[in-house]
Amino acid sequence: MPNIAIVGSGPAGFYAAEAAIKRFGDAVRIDMIDRLPTPFGLIRAGVAPDHQSIKAVSRRYDATASGGQLRYVGGVTLGTDVGIGELLEAYDAVVLATGAPHDRSLGIPGEDLPGVIGSAAFVGWYNGHPDHAGLNPPLDAGAVCVIGNGNVAIDCARVLAKTRAELADSDIAGHALDALAGSAVRSVHLVGRRGPHQVSFTPKELGELGELERATPLVDGADFPPPEADAALEPGLRKVLAHLRGFAARGPDAGKPVRIGFDFFSRPVAVLGEGRAEGLQVERTRVDADGVATGTGELRVIPCGMVIPCIGYRTGPVPDVPFDARGGKFMNRDGRIADRLWCTGWARRGPSGTIGTNRTDAFAVVEAMAAETGEGRPGGAMLDTILAARGVRASGYDGWRRIDAAEVARARPGAPREKFVTLDAMAAAMGG
Ligand SMILES: Cc1cc2nc3c(=O)[nH]c(=O)nc-3n(C[C@H](O)[C@H](O)[C@H](O)COP(=O)(O)OP(=O)(O)OC[C@H]3O[C@@H](n4cnc5c(N)ncnc54)[C@H](O)[C@@H]3O)c2cc1C
Predict the structure, then answer these.
(1) Where does the record place the FAD/NAD(P)-binding domain (predicted)?
(2) Contact between 421 and 38 (Cβ < 8 Å)
(3) Of all atoms in ligand 1, which is nearest to the CA of residue 12?
């Protein structure tokens, strides 16, 4: 039976493991390598903390990890602790499921000013990812511009707008809950280049913005085409339009102090400010029948002390693995990068689709891989020798179980867990 290495323990990695167990049988040996001692990738560190039902998909991954074919190798980074050549030496096949953890840049002047915080960092901060736990976003800002018209932008806006009580039963990191409770933010602008017909929101997520305790959506009725134009949209987008039109017709709730404004037809041109973000300059656009936006030359500034671009992500390159810099993902054909080297999930196709898309993707990649995979390489024993020689101490799934139990035990009342947000605290919870 083959020895397989899967790098990355997010949805793509776990679905690839599930597919490999189904395809190769119980005798397959899988080492799942992740840079963190905590598995599940963006299920833990991306999906919104107040969407616990979505995070529950990790129970399925837990079942995959518990079947006896998979060994978790946590705290090991591909490219730093071990090289791709070494993994290919050790394993019959290697699958890269490393996601797309880096923010795409806006490419406009001022984007490096303090106060401009990519969504990977902002979301990682409130979700307690160790890379971003120390972020300290400027919540003294009265207004925030969230750039993008997809669900990640909605997540950021909603978390900024919710009250402490509304977040109390989520697994938001304690530091974020405390900081947000003292936030001065009263205005969140969702800035989109195009119009209501071009948004990528889903109806449920958008609808939630109309049900918040202290925040109210603000949509300008003048931004819509005539209502009959909605008939040509696909059903999901029609529901989205119904919400947006409902928000516009209702007008903002005067009793609620926080506004979530939809700034359509606004292309970001520059972040302005002396020493920190103080405003986002945008150009009014016009959108043609094909959905293409062009600038009209009409400029305005939205005053704000924080800018959160939610405009997509890039995979991190790995030495000696062909990389498509333009697409921000590994170069591959249907998941195949090179002989015995494969990729799946966001690292293969870029940051699109739902969690379930990664399942379809992983099963297809493992099916293609099965036709080419031989057996006979040493597998985990060789990896262990390499890591030991470098003094790298990997953690196992039992270590994650100890972290999990300790997080659940120290949860604030009503919350599912209180996350450890540093590698040291995770190591302590694992017992050293
Ligand atoms: C803010 C946000 C909210 C989302 N909400 C939803 C939602 O509500 N519903 C939904 O269906 N989808 C949602 N998604 C999309 C969903 O999270 C992704 O489809 C999915 O996580 C992609 O899976 P992946 O395994 O490819 O990547 P990831 O989940 O990112 O997993 C990658 C893993 O690889 C590890 N890794 C990276 N580099 C290395 C390395 N060099 N060495 C070792 N390990 C490495 C990482 O630590 C991580 O564990 C959301 C995404 C974001 C960003």
Answers:
(1) 3-166
(2) no
(3) 25
Cα distance between residue 10 and residue 314, in whole Å: 15
104 labelled as ligand-binding? no
155 C-beta closer than 6 A to ligand 1: yes
Residue 301 near residue 280, CB atoms below 8 Å: yes
Q: Which of 272, 232, 264 is nearest to 247 (CA)?
A: 264
The response to whether residue 98 sits with its C-beta less than 6 Å from ligand 1 reads: yes
- pLDDT per 10-residue tile (average), the chain, 432 residues: 96 98 94 98 98 96 96 98 98 98 96 98 98 97 97 98 97 98 98 98 97 98 96 96 98 95 98 98 95 96 98 96 96 97 97 95 97 93 98 98 98 97 98 78
**E strand or H helix that includes residue 321:** none
Pocket test for ligand 1, best of 98, 117, 152 (most atoms within 8 A of CB): 98
Average pLDDT score, the chain: 97
DSSP letter for 414, please: T
Tell which one of 42, 131, 332 to mutate to probe ligand 1, the residue whose CB is within 8 A of the most ligand atoms: 42
> First CA to last CA across the chain, in angstroms?
35
| Domains, in order of start, for the chain | 3-101+314-395 (3.40.50.720), 105-309 (3.50.50.60)
Using the mean position of ligand 1's atoms as its centre, give its distance from the Cα of residue 41 in Å: 5
pLDDT of residue 1: 82
CA 100–ligand 1 middle distance (angstroms): 7
Q: Is 400 exposed, middle or buried (0-12, 13-18, 19+ CB in 10 A)?
A: buried
Query: 176 and 169 in contact (C-beta within 8 Å)?
Result: no
